[in-house]
Write a structure and sequence with these properties.
With 367 residues, the chain is α/β, with parallel strands linked by helices. It contains twelve helices and 14 strands. Bound molecules: 5-S-methyl-1-O-phosphono-5-thio-D-ribulose (MRU).
Length: 367
């Protein structure tokens, strides 16, 4: 089996700028691609305090489950480093506040609370050491999560690529590419890996209303990578399936319950139902940090509600009458029964049920 070092050596940069990266030491900053400006501008911004990071997560400058977890890991450093020269009790009190604050920035993706919990455990392990060393330990933990994410995405790509035959038409919804991870992506990572293995694929990209992550971001990543792709409106998915253009659907995930019910971008559920109606396999690709084994089913997943304006003013101008009532849940839950398999870094979970998930993921949660 390949060692961690071997896997690291395999990793190459997949896009010209990483989605996020830390600059400098403990007194440094977090650089992120501002995803709200894509596809027209590829621009990095530097975040130097926890409020700027909170704003960046809640406005989707940095977005997608793994990326917001990684950003939050670094956000803890931004939030507590001001207490590095004080006493330990002050530092720990500040850590609790920062964790609570960041956890509220977006509620659905469990990677966020997973990363924050890891930081709390890292700080506890360093209890008794000078606060400056604890802060340095938190930065080291954020870096460790970042490096692990790169390795996990490559492994997801390798496992998932085997499920896609040469000549497959693949439909994807939202964006689960290099932009949502340290590198390479989850659902798009599978597509990149299948292409790298010489398979000819054609990707159909749902535009993903209301914020157009498919049109703005997935389409951009596929154009960058030179992968044949066609952009469609969300409402066309059933029709392109009936026309025989799609042989597989693959999406990312924001939270997967113990029974396999999966929260992902709003609209994913209806794509899964369309796939089931056409007997097309529907795959979810996600790292183990996206599983929430503390909840039995998708009914317990908190669904983020976002502003009405995203729907009424989505295209830079008003497209609905003033005064109309709007409902804008950012995610939906796809039941496990319509998911053919879940691809994680440990392998392919098939069939998707509580026993299989516990077997593949349950005993492997680290650290
Ligand atoms: O609201 P977003 O853009 O953060 O939603 C992102 C998604 O729903 C992605 O599909 C999900 O986070 C998986 S990313 C690997």
């Amino acid at each position: 089996m390949a060692t961690y070092a071997d896997q690291q050596a395999e990793i190459t940069e997949h896009q010209s700028l990483p989605t996020l990266h830390w600059i400098g030491d403990v007194d440094g900053s977090l650089a992120i691609i501002d995803q709200t400006r894509l596809p027209l501008e590829l621009v990095e911004i530097e975040l130097t305090d926890v409020d700027a990071l909170w704003e960046a997560i809640s406005t989707l400058r940095v977005r997608g489950a793994p990326a917001i977890g990684l950003a939050a890991g670094y956000g803890v450093v931004l939030g507590v480093r001001g207490a590095a020269e004080g006493d330990e009790a002050d530092l720990m009190a500040r850590l609790r506040k920062v964790v609570e604050y960041l956890a509220a920035s977006r509620p659905t993706a469990v990677n966020l609370s997973w990363a924050l919990a890891r930081q709390v455990r890292a700080a506890k392990k360093l209890a008794g050491r000078p606060p400056r060393e604890i802060v340095a330990g938190l930065l080291a933990e954020a870096h460790a999560m970042y490096e692990e994410d790169r390795v996990m995405c490559r492994a997801i790509g390798r496992h998932g690529a085997e499920l896609l035959a040469d000549g497959t038409g693949v439909l994807t919804h939202c964006n689960a590419g290099a932009l949502v991870t340290a590198d390479y992506g989850t659902a798009l990572g599978v597509i990149f890996a299948a292409r790298a293995a010489g398979k000819r694929l054609h990707v159909y990209v749902d535009e993903t209303r209301p914020l157009l992550q498919g049109a703005r971001l997935t389409a951009w990543e596929l154009v960058q990578a030179g992968i044949p792709a066609t952009l469609i409106c969300d409402s066309m998915a059933a029709s392109v399936m009936r026309e025989g253009r799609i042989q597989a659907v693959i999406v990312g995930a924001d939270r997967i319950a113990a029974n396999g019910d999966t929260a992902n971008k709003i609209g994913t559920y209806q794509v899964a139902l369309c796939a089931a109606a056409h007997d097309i396999p529907f795959y979810v690709a996600a790292p183990s940090s996206t599983f929430d084994l503390s909840i039995a089913s998708g009914a317990e997943i908190p669904i983020e509600q976002r502003q009405a304006r995203e729907i009424t003013h989505g295209f830079g101008r008003q497209t609905a009458p003033t005064g109309i009532d709007v409902y804008n849940p950012a995610f939906d839950v796809t039941p496990a029964r319509v998911i053919r398999a879940i691809i994680c870094e440990h392998g392919v979970i098939d069939p998707v049920n509580a026993e299989q998930i516990a077997k593949v993921v349950g005993t492997l949660r680290v650290p």
